[in-house]
Amino acid sequence: MKGRDRAELRAEAHRLDPMVHIGQHGMTPSLISSLDDALRTRELVKVKLRTYDNAKPKDIANSLALATNSAVVQVIGRTATLFRENPDLERKRGDPPPWRR
Length: 101
What we know:
The protein is α+β, with helices and mostly antiparallel strands. The protein has helices spanning 3-13, 29-42, 57-68; strands at residues 20-21, 44-48, 71-76, 79-83. It has one domain (3-83): CATH 3.30.110.60. Strands 1-2-4-3 form a four-stranded mixed sheet, sandwiched between helices.
């Protein structure tokens, strides 16, 4: 992903609310499945990270990105933004992107 693309996605992610929250159990298969579903339908997803095992937020975000085959757009504090394009989503000219719907 190029810097310009990443900057545009960061700007778009500013007004999004976190859709997935990592709780006390950490990265479970059900959490990965939920994140995968959110990425499939929305493409751009914010994830709220919880402190566990003294892991750094960037490391957790990179692990999530590897598990879901997505890209980390940004990590600010305990919130990470992930992006994965879905070529199967119908796109019409002039429609807003899937994360704005």
